[in-house]
Helix-turn-helix domain-containing protein (Nonomuraea salmonea), 125 residues
Amino acid sequence: MHDPIQQAAADVARALGTTFDELTDIADILDDHLRADRSEGEILLLALGELTRREPERHDLIGAAEAAEILGISRSRLLLLAEKKPDFPPQRYPHLAAAKLWRRQDIIAFNRTWDRRVGRPPKRS
């Protein structure tokens, strides 16, 4: 697959636990019912939305802003935690440049077990 839009859609579909074929089947159905002036990329995005609508608990992905809100921290602090803390939940598909995404359930579970320390760590001499 050489088209970057198709490749990105395939990556997202895989992260959502489905196949690109299932995604394109949905896209074909949508394309039959939508205006003809929609691009292939728009149809694929709409199909991804339809996938998540069908089984929201299976596909409940959130971005950094939503994850930070759940944890009660800033987005920049979240990204630092994701980078430095080994028990932080893994991103669902880290190879995408567009966004960092996690499963909502993973972030909620992390929040329950996170040993939150207030303030800066002591300086080492």
About this structure: The CA atoms of residues 51 and 104 lie 17 Å apart. Residues 4-54 form one domain.
